Request: fold
Amino acid sequence: MRISHTNRPLVVVTMGDPAGIGPEVIAGALSDPDVRGLADLIVVGDARVMLAAFESRGLPQPKVHDKQGSGSTVDLSDGRVLLMDPGIPLDNAEPGKPTREGAQKTLDCLDLASDIMKEGSGSGGRMALVTAPVNKEMISGVKPGFIGHTEYLRDRHEVDFVTMVLVGEKLRVVPVTRHIPLKDVSRELTGDLLMRTLMQVVDARVVICGRNEARIGVSALNPHGGEGGKIGKEDISVIKPTIDRARAVYPHIVGPIPADVIFHKAFNGGLDIVMAMYHDQGLAPFKMVEFETGVNMTIGLPYVRTSPDHGTAFDIAGKNIASSVSFKQAIKCAVKAVRQAV
Amino acid sequence: MRISHTNRPLVVVTMGDPAGIGPEVIAGALSDPDVRGLADLIVVGDARVMLAAFESRGLPQPKVHDKQGSGSTVDLSDGRVLLMDPGIPLDNAEPGKPTREGAQKTLDCLDLASDIMKEGSGSGGRMALVTAPVNKEMISGVKPGFIGHTEYLRDRHEVDFVTMVLVGEKLRVVPVTRHIPLKDVSRELTGDLLMRTLMQVVDARVVICGRNEARIGVSALNPHGGEGGKIGKEDISVIKPTIDRARAVYPHIVGPIPADVIFHKAFNGGLDIVMAMYHDQGLAPFKMVEFETGVNMTIGLPYVRTSPDHGTAFDIAGKNIASSVSFKQAIKCAVKAVRQAV
Reply:
């Protein structure tokens, strides 16, 4: 498949679970002319579900391209949104009622979108992927072992390490360990993990914050940075030596800085990126002030991927009460990252 | 010693280490007529050091009461600051150069101040203690085993359990475990500790936030609250059952709420007090936005004690560059707490 598009960035959007709020927040985001004006847009989703969502928001009909033929050409140069359905429309897609068929369709959309990204990014295209939320339990019913977008895309693109970045208006935070019990953090936080994450962040620093000399701060693990080893040894034995090695590669890294200092510093513009040692250390301050403005970004894939900071929200799906603010932010952030990367 | 004072609250201030920034931030805070107007004030400190600090800030000379006789009467009814020195002035107190004599004097001041509090609070006086920073290493040189103000005052007043509260303009946060390595948090966070802390906070809720129906939120320990036990069991096995028991005593307690939700909620006015399970979970979000406005409060003593959110800062002491904002906040917070408690 060849894509003929304008000189704007190309953003590929996946529908997520058709029974969740994905379809309506996508339609909501694209009903904002400012968002539509940022990029050439492909929405990969169920045609019936997405057309209904577009209509309910009063959006102009998208062009529908329902053939997955690899020889075809897709023309985006007229600025209209292109809707691609990887299969046949769902018979039965009721908001709030996730089904096995819906989960399969979600996965098919993700596969098609990642194929488009693979082809396009190989040719040096300025492309980003924005994914609406999926339900991992539902998808693991049709694809055993499915954990989430991040790991799935990592494996599909055959990369062995990816990093999650939270990008907000004032803060950019990287949790080095992620969804693990708090008591396991000390064991999982190795010098190797921190080093790989730091190097991936250094490589992607311009994508993340637009600055070649991005100031990266590394948080301490223990209260007050461990007070010289009196309150935990990891800051001395793991974090400090890793920072010292990383600084030989990229000098603008500082730390370990106690967590109750580093976020104040970053929030007031003194740091561009904060490396948090575990989920809540980074997410609690981040979401406190970036709840609506924050976006998840994955770095380490062959392209930038962003997603809004919410889940499928089956309980409110179809009621047109879900806010599209976070999805708009995810698109804006993706476009900004693509532009910054150039 | 009898204290004759006005109907304003009585605030007793301790100097802290004479070589630190304590003397100058006290003088700086009291040079604000609005702060002086809030309370009757006793400063317990070295007469020579404090008089010099007062003079350098252009403050009116305080009355000096240098006799520790228990039969004397102290008259504060004229509204002037009273300076009390528990011994003889230091010969040699150079800013930035802590000494053993200075540490002994720091401790003598704390002892005298706590004696005043003990007598006064026993008679139902509306009193609070505000402490300037000490250096625990220096004091432990003259008083082995000294850990900090909180534990010292706890033992001096023979109470067996006290709680630290961080009081800011928008957030009030209680760290349930405090200065321990992160890897020990799961083990130290028992249902008993959480329950005792919750009950102490419930008892002091009006002092902390002025509301009889204060909404208390309890943070989860693990990312996303443990996702039903998949990411750590403590939220189910320890925190939830404790909250359920505590709610039988005081119903306005909610949780466990994931840390990346609870601070957003509190910051936007949806909760009055947040119980954080460990130091950085509470302090990182708190200090991010309350760095200058935040105050430490100790509850569980026979009176309210506050302190500014900084240390001795020997490196900048005596240069008159230390900000008095936090010390002013500590006095204001103490006065507000005393008024709220009535």
Q: What stands out?
A: Chain A touches chain B through 39 residues (CB under 8 Å).
